[in-house]
Amino acid sequence: xxxxxxxxxxxxxxKTNYTVVYGRNSIIxxxxxxxxxxxxxxxxNSAHNDEKIEKIKSLAKDKGVIFQFVGKEKLNxxxxxxxxxxxxxxxxxxxxxxxxxxxxxxxxxxxSLLILDGIEDSHNLGAIIRSAVCAGVKGVILxxxxxxxxxxxxxxxSAGAVNNISIIKVNSxxxxxxxxxxxxxxxxAADHHAKDNHYEIDYTDMNFALIMGAEHxxxxxxxxxxxxxxVKIPMLTNFNSLNVSNATAIILFExxxxxxxxxxxxxx
Length: 268
What we know:
By secondary structure, the protein is α/β, with parallel strands linked by helices. The protein folds into 2 domains: about 5-90, CATH 3.30.1330.30; about 100-265, Alpha/beta knot (3-Layer(aba) Sandwich), CATH 3.40.1280.10. The chain contains 9 helices and 13 strands. Residues about 1-15 have low confidence and may be disordered.
C-alpha cells in the first residue's frame, strides 16, 4: 500500500519523497517496470478516449495505483512549461545501482556500458539513455557531482527508458573505470582529436564501456589516459562537433550493426 498525503477533491498531491514524471510513454514505462512506487496519477479531463491514456488507467487499476481526472491547469502547475500530454504522476525517484552490484549481476555475459563525463543538459541525458536502451546497453554510469542526474525532463526525454537500464552513480569516474578494467572491460573514449575512427573497433566479442564527454569540455584528461581506445566520428566538414546525444547514438549503433552482422554470418 503506497503511503502519501493527498487532497482527493482538489487533485493536490504531496511532493514528499516523490518526483514529478510527465508524458504518456514515461508513465507507461514506469508502471510496466514495477520498480517505482506511485503516489497518484493525474489525468486531464480532456484526455478521454486516448489509447495510451486508457492503457495508463488499465495498468494503474491492475497495480492498485490511484488516478484522478483534473483540469489542465492543475497539470500545468505540476509540470510547468512541460509537454505533459495530459497526464502527470508522482513517482519514487529512480534507484541508482551500485557499480559492484551491477558487475556481479552481469558477470559471465558480454555487457556494454556508457560512462558520461560531465553531461549537464537534461535533454541530452534523456536522449542518450533512450539510445542506450535501444542499442542494448546495460548500464549508464554518472558522476555524483558536476553532472546532470535523473530528473523529470530526463525521464520525459528518455520516453521512460530510464526504467529499462541500470543507472549507476559513482563518486569518482576514474575509480569506476579502474574497477571496470579489473573486471575485463575494454574502455573506449570518444574524442574528436583521435586518429582512429569509431567503426574500426571490433565491438562484437568484448565487454566495453564507452566514455562520452560534455560538448564543450569533452572527456577529462585523467579518463582519456585510462582508455584502451580513443576514437572519433569522421566528418566531411570542419564543423566543430556533433551533439553528444547524436554522437553517442552513432557509436552505439555501429556496435549494434557489427553484432547483427556477425549473428547473420553465424546463422543466429
